[in-house]
Amino acid sequence: MSQFFQQGPQLYNQFDDDALLQSYLRRILPSPIYSSILPDLKRLGQRVITDILTMAHDAETQPPELIQYDPWGKRIDTIRVAGGWKQLDQVSAEEGLVALGYERPYDEFSRVYQFAKLYLFTPSSAIYTCPLAMTDGAARLIEVHGSPALQDRAYCHLTSRNPSSFWTSGQWMTERTGGSDVGRSQTIARWQNEYFCLYGDKWFTSATTAQMAMTLARIETIPTIPETQTGFEKEGERAAMALEHPGLSLFYLETRLQDGSLNHIRINRLKEKFGTRALPTAELTLNGTIAQAIGKPGEGVKIMSTLFNITRIYNACSAVSLMRRGIALAKDYAQRRMAFGKKLSEQPLHIETLARLEVEWTGCFLMTFYVVELLGKKECNQATPEESAILRLLTPLLKLYTAKQAVKVNSEILESFGGAGYIEDTGLPKLLRDAQVLAIWEGTTNVLSLDALRAIQKEQALFPLLQDISQRLSRIHYDTLSPCIDKAEQALQALQGYAIHAESEGLDYLQAGARDLAYSLSRTVIAALLLEHAQWSAKEENDTRYALIVRRWCDQGLVKLQNPRDSHREETRHILFGS
Ligand code: MFK
Q1: Among 379, 381, 431, 387, CA closest to 406
Q2: With the C-alpha atoms ordered 456, 459, 465, 467, is the resulting torsion angle positive or negative?
Q3: Per-residue pLDDT tens over the stretch 466-515
Q4: pLDDT tens for residues 343-394?
Q5: Which of 301, 313, 454 to mutate to test the pocket of ligand 1 (most atoms within 8 A of CB)?
Q6: What number does the ligand 1 atom closest to the CA of 127 have?
Q7: CA of 383 to the centre of ligand 1 (A)
Q8: 448 Cα to the center of ligand 1, angstroms
Q9: pTM of full prediction above 0.90
Q10: From ligand 1's centre to the CA of 443, what distance in Å?
Q11: Which structural domains are found in the chain, ordered by start?
C-alpha cells in the first residue's frame, strides 16, 4: 500500500505574504498613515487564515435554507443561515469594513485603507463581501440622495461598528423581465393609506436576510401625497408626480415590520447557484410592501447608479482578491509537489504559466486600487472634474476587465493542481465558481462595455482618461522601461485614432466594437499604472520585479480594435445564423 500522501497548500498571514499590497500602500499612502494602519492590516492578515476562515467554512458547508411554514402551517418564510454566516456579519461590523468608508479617518485615503481590508477579507469570507457591497452602496446613496429623516433612520445602522445595531442592505433590481434591461421592470408603487406600497416580483435578491433594501418600482397612481412622506421635497417635483411616470422610481424599504413579521414580502424560493453558495439569493413577491421614495420620481435607475457604481468597485476588489488567493495557493503548492523528479516550482513550463497569472493579477490590482483612490478623492471633494470623469469611465471598465480575468486566472489555478483542483473538499473549485458570478452580477461584460460607451458619449470621459495616461507616461524616466513606454504610447495613439474615426460611425458600429474598446482601454491604463509602480519600486525599494512584470504586460499587446463596419457586422450575422 502506498505511503505517499501529498501535502496540501498552506496559507500564511495574508498581509505579510502579499508583497504587492505592501509595496502599493507604501507608495500611495503618506507614511504616517501607512504606519498607523500597518498593525491593523497585519492583524487582519492573520485573522483571515484563522477564525474568519473557520466562519466561512461553516457558512459554506451549511448553505442557507428557506423555511416557508411553521409546524402549524403558518407561512413564515424564514431563511435559516449558518452560525458562521452570522459571525461574519458581526466581524464585518467590528472590523469597520463598511464604516471605515464613512468615518473617513484618513480623509481621501480612507477608501484605500477600507478596500485593503476588504481585499484581505473577501477570499476568506464566503463572499460576505456581497452584502457589504450593497450596504456600502446604500450608505453612499443615502448620504448623497437621502432625506435627513432617512439618514437618521438607516445611515447610522449601515455604517455602524456595533454588531447589534449594524444593518446590511439588499439591492433588488432584477425582475423576470430582465437583469440587464432593468427598465422593463414591472413592479408598481401604489399610494395607499399614507404610504407607498410595492407590488411585484423580484427575481434575484442577494443577501435576502438584510434588514433593508433599495429597489425600483413604477409609481402607479398619484393622489395628494403629504410632503413629509416622500423623498420629493420641492413643490415642482411633487407636482410632477401627478403625471403618469413612465420611468422607474427608487424606493427604500425595511424587510421587517415593527412586530418582526416580513414587510408584506413572500420568499418564493432560494436560488440554487453555481457558486456563492453561502449567500442567500431569493425570488420574492412584494405584496403591498411599505416603502419610501428617494429622489425624483422616474429617476430611479440614475439614482441607483450611485449605489451600483460602488458595488462594481467591490466586485473588482473581490476579483483581484480571489485571483491573489488562487495564486498564493498555487505558488505554495508548487514548492511542495514533485513531478518528473522535480518540484513544480522547478519546472520551467509550470512556473511560466504561474508567472502569467501573477502578471495579470498585478495589473488588475493596480487598476482596482487606482479607482479606489479616485473614489476616495471624489467623496472627499478632492477630485478634479477630470478625475470625476475618469472615475465614471473606469468603474465599468474595471469591473468588466477584472471579473473576466478572475475567471481565467482561477480556471488556470485549478488546472495547476491537476485533479485535486477539481475536487470539492480541497476548497479550490469554489474559487472558480465564486469568480464566475463576478462577470455576471452588477452588469455583464457587454452591459458594462455599453456603459463605458455611455460614459464616453455622455460625460465626455475618454479624453481626460487618455490625457491622464499620457501624463503618467511622461513621468517615467527609468531607462529600462523605455520599450514599454513606446508600446504604451503606440496604444494611446491607436485609441485616440479610434476615438476620432468612431465619432462619425453609427451606434451599431460603436456597440459592436465596445468590448474591444473596453479591453484595450483597460490594458493601456494598466500599462501606465504598472510603469508608474515599476519606476517607484525600482527607485525606492530597489526592486526590479515590477519592471519585469510591466515588460511582460506590454509584450502581450495592449490594443486590439476592429472596424465593425456594415460589411463586418453582416459577416458576423452570417457566421452565426447563416445567410
Ligand atoms: C462581491 C462583490 C459584490 C457585488 C454585489 C453583488 C450583488 C448582486 C446584486 C445584483 O446583481 S443587483 C443587479 C445588478 N444589475 C445591474 O447592474 C444592471 C445592469 N444593467 C445596467 O447597468 C443598464 O445599463 C441600466 C440598468 C443602467 C440601463 O438602464 P436604462 O434605464 O435603460 O438606462 P439609461 O436610460 O441609459 O440610464 C438612465 C439614467 O441613468 C441615465 O441618466 P439620464 O437620465 O441623466 O440620461 C444614465 O446616464 C444613468 N446611468 C446609467 N448607468 C449609469 C448612469 N449614471 C452613472 N453611472 C452609471 N453606471
Answers
A1: 431
A2: positive
A3: 999 999 999 999 999 999 999 999 999 999 999 998 889 999 999 999 99
A4: 999 999 999 999 999 999 999 999 999 999 999 999 999 999 999 999 999 9
A5: 301
A6: 1
A7: 23
A8: 9
A9: yes
A10: 8
A11: 169-302 (2.40.110.20), 461-577 (no CATH)
